[in-house]
Design a protein that fits this description.
This protein is an alpha/beta fold. It has a single domain, classed as Rossmann fold (3-Layer(aba) Sandwich), CATH 3.40.50. It contains 8 helices and 8 strands, in the order βαβαβαβαβαβαααββ. The chain has helices at residues 14-24, 45-52, 67-80, 107-137, 163-182, 199-202, 215-228, 231-234, and strands at 4-8, 29-35, 57-61, 86-89, 143-147, 187-192, 238-240, 245-246. The protein has an 8-stranded mixed sheet with strand order 3-2-1-4-5-6-7-8, with helices on both faces. The model has no long low-confidence stretch (mean pLDDT 97). Bound molecules: NADP nicotinamide-adenine-dinucleotide phosphate (NAP). The site of NADP nicotinamide-adenine-dinucleotide phosphate has 25 residues, from helix 1 and helix 6. Pfam families: adh_short. Keywords: NADP, Oxidoreductase.
């Protein structure tokens, strides 16, 4: 049986790393762990995981929104595998989670967040589209999932001040709904990972972390949702890690 090939971006830490860790334990699975700092430090968590599962966890350089870098990653994967079955675009940034009202946000902050959070997933999708389509041609059901955020919600917005971040994830949600519409062969959707204890959530001074879940719980939940997802049931819709459909 040929393995299921996953590509996860933002795999060095936080939720992306937890996704790779969960996938590493699955049989017949290979996961390309996308990082921007390459080669991976052998003493880092990802370095150690790759050493433990040398056939299943393959670190690869994927810098968000860098076209040359993303194309090079796709070429490297293609040398070894003729298809990719699932991409989880998880890399993301938040220029600020607090103090960034519409009145105060800078155009530079909006552009920075859009570059990584909206353009990043597009760039990796464009680089890997051919390999995702090859999965479909071989009888598979390829998936492209982008890690979004509840902060993207437009109807009934979440009352946080992260204007640039929310706008960048709202743009991402539009792109994912559009991708699902355009690509009949691919199940595409955005997913909110939950409120997760990570470097990103810790950057907020005044948002209590009491209710935050672990990256592991988030990753396990998202992988369950992704596994169940079909074009009809999940494509183009906004989900959370627990399998609840969210309003855009
Ligand atoms: N934590 C939450 O509560 C929460 C809630 C909703 C949505 N999210 C989303 O979940 C995703 C993961 O967030 P997290 O909480 O795990 O955050 P995190 O711990 O801050 O991790 C962010 C990851 O993105 C990578 N990254 C940032 N800029 C990059 C770039 N230019 N190129 C490649 N990789 C880049 C980082 O790589 P380096 O290590 O190289 O910096 C890191 O691996 C993000 O998309 C975030 O928006 C998180």
């Amino acid at each position: 049986m040929s393995p299921q090939i996953f590509v996860v971006t933002g795999a060095a830490r936080g939720i992306g790393y937890a996704l790779v860790q969960a996938l590493a334990e699955r049989p017949d699975t290979v996961v390309y762990a996308g990082v921007r700092s390459f080669p991976v430090d052998t003493n880092s968590e990802l370095g150690q995981l790759a050493a433990k599962y040398p056939d299943a966890v393959i670190p690869i350089k994927i810098t968000s929104a860098d076209e040359a870098d993303n194309q090079a990653a796709a070429a490297l994967i293609k040398e070894r595998y003729s298809q990719v079955d699932c991409v989880i675009a998880c890399a993301g940034v938040a220029s600020a989670l607090e103090g960034q009202t519409v009145r105060r946000v800078t155009p530079a902050d909006i552009l920075d967040d859009v570059k990584i959070n909206s353009t990043g997933p597009v760039t990796i999708f464009q680089a890997l589209a051919e390999l995702l389509l090859a999965s479909h041609a071989a009888g598979g059901q390829p998936k492209f999932v982008a890690v979004s955020s509840l902060a993207a919600r437009i109807v009934d917005p979440v009352p946080i001040e992260a204007t640039a971040y929310g706008a960048s994830k709202a743009a991402l949600n539009y792109i994912m709904a559009k991708m699902n519409l355009e690509m009949a062969e691919i199940v595409a959707f955005p997913i909110h990972p939950g409120f997760v204890l990570s470097d990103m959530s810790k950057q907020a001074q005044n948002i209590p972390l009491d209710g935050a879940i672990s990256p592991k719980e988030s990753a396990t939940g998202m992988l369950n949702v992704i596994e169940k997802a079909t074009k009809e049931s999940h494509g183009g819709k906004f989900w959370d890690y627990a399998g609840t459909q969210l309003q855009y």
